[in-house]
């Protein structure tokens, strides 16, 4: 009985720790973004409200919010131009010289880039990888590609657990060790989430053909 309770308690602690960490990764970027936006709203509002009150005789609610939206839009327009990109790179180089700001800025930028990719999931491509041992093929997703010192292409592969794809395993493998597929990421995720019960049309045949 004690042994069973100990196993259950160990499983519960691991599960709570894993789920808490997953929630933490979701909440922190969102919370940081909200806090930064609120700070910008408040700062602009505090700067402009005295001037607005002097001109119109009364404060105008929401002026900070409106100006911030316009500024963000203008930054997006500027960032889309060659000159704007150079200016942004110059600004980033200045931030990189500040010891305290540098790691924080890089972390936030990496998080934003991961969620602003063309694919809403952040996955580049669906692949098949032998996991957890040779001869057993598992669905995985490429999250990044890099070149090793030997010149070989290495892939960061996220292998989701089923039916909860928010947890999984990260494998760094050579390009030759995976099979790339043309299966859309969304279709592959449907199969993972349903534990194979929902199989988009033709996905099983296409995966089998790749393995052969």
Task: Write up what this structure looks like.
The chain is α+β, with helices and mostly antiparallel strands. It folds into two domains: 114 residues, no CATH class; 87 residues, SH3 type barrels. The protein is built from six helices and five strands, in the order H-H-H-H-E-E-E-E-E-H-H. Strands 4-3-2-1-5 form a five-stranded antiparallel sheet, covered by helices on one side. A hairpin with a 6-residue loop joins strand 1 and strand 2. Helix 1 crosses helix 2. The protein is extended, with a radius of gyration of 24 Å.
- List the helices and strands in order: HHHHEEEEEHH
Structure summary, number of beta strands: 5
First-last Cα distance:
48 Å
Count of the separate structural domains: 2
Average pLDDT, rounded to a whole number, is: 78
Tally the helices: what do you get? Answer: 6
Query: In percent, how helical is the residue content?
Result: 55-70%
Question: Over the alpha carbons, how many angstroms does the gyration radius reach?
Answer: 24 Å
Detail the topology: elements first, then pairings.
Layout: H1 2-56, H2 63-79, H3 82-95, H4 101-115, E1 125-130, E2 137-147, E3 153-160, E4 168-174, E5 178-180, H5 185-193, H6 203-211
Antiparallel strand pairs: 1-2, 1-5, 2-3, 3-4
Helix pairs in contact: 1-2, 2-3
Could you name the key traits of this structure?
SH3 type barrels; 212 residues; alpha+beta; 6 helices; 5-stranded antiparallel beta sheet
